Amino acid sequence: MTDAQETAADSSVRTTGGTPPDDAGATVLGAPTPLLEPREGIPPVIADEAALAEVIAAFAAGSGPVAVDAERASGYRYGQRAYLVQLRREGAGSALIDPVACPDLSGLGEALAGVEWVLHAATQDLPCLREIGMVPTRLFDTELAGRLAGFPRVGLGAMVEGVLGFVLEKGHSAVDWSTRPLPEPWLRYAALDVELLVDLRDALEKELDRQGKLDWALQEFAAIAAAPPAEPRKEPWRRTSGMHKVRRRRQLAVVRELWLTRDRIAQRRDVSPGKVLSDAAIVEAALSLPANVHALAALNGFGHRVGRRQLDQWQAAVDRAKALPEAQLPQPGQPVTGPPPPRAWADKDPAAAARLSAARAGVSALAEQLNMPQENLVSPDTVRRVCWEPPAAVTAGTVADALAGHGARPWQVEQVTPVLVAALSGAGA
What we know:
The chain is α/β, with parallel strands linked by helices. Helix content is 49%, strand content 9%. It has 20 helices and eight strands.
């Protein structure tokens, strides 16, 4: 039994309304208990302003942290908007809100200002929650807490089972949540996702405290809550799957034109871009540079199921790329804003390659000692940047300043600085 399981078993599991079995913690020791129904049943879906106002009042009057989750329609719809928002708070019970019918949830967000939000994998849900006016000022991320505490499996189902002894049904995680009306089994699944989230938070808090990592986790959570929205990705077409096969600039231009055309169509139709045209088909056309619609139709992904009108628009995109002057063709690589790829270090700067090798080995050993993934101990990109351009004088102070300058949190600076000082000094920085 892990330390976290002992924590759950040795302490009473705090519930957020209703009552799981009194021996909930003890179930960790034996067979896990299937969690089949929400404690108060499946709540009605909130789909009008009057019902939303009642929920806002109830959650504002509740106490303690609030569990929050959101369901998207990835793979079905364009973008990453929320199609269902689930909440649970002591004194308020659970709520399921339809953000299509109630697109402005800023009133709910304001009612929960200052309240700690409990999310699992917060960075996945925060962008779509922000779009509908829900932005936490404080949060607790149960997935990240699990990583810092050393759990080998940090999915919500695995965490709830391993820590609390309950099995969550996960069969509807990848369904089309834009479906209306939402089927009852999906709603049951959605309500159960927040059923024990606060209980999990409490058990993980105790475990992190026992390991001496609670302050580290709180620093991480604060950083997530304070982070600004991500900048739009530059040249997103370069992330087309299979791009490594595309070498020539003219072929890159075809990828770009087809990707941009597909994106416009997908946005207009509100469908996933992959349902309009596959990445594999884009790459195939780029490599083949078809001369006409007939040649295009012979390629994989442009077969008999694609209508003539669609073939015409794809061929038009190919023709636009083929007609571009040389000066307007994309360059073969993305502009490098940081160090070169590590595989090139040995040729470009052997001393830097030696520093990186020593630093990676030291970080790996420390992460193993602290029982957490290396990437949570310190960002690999931060390690690369410090090793590529180390301080002129390698001291604990200068290395700490360099780490902090690249966004490392205080706890990371404290833990990693001695490792990097040794690596940079020993490798002849």
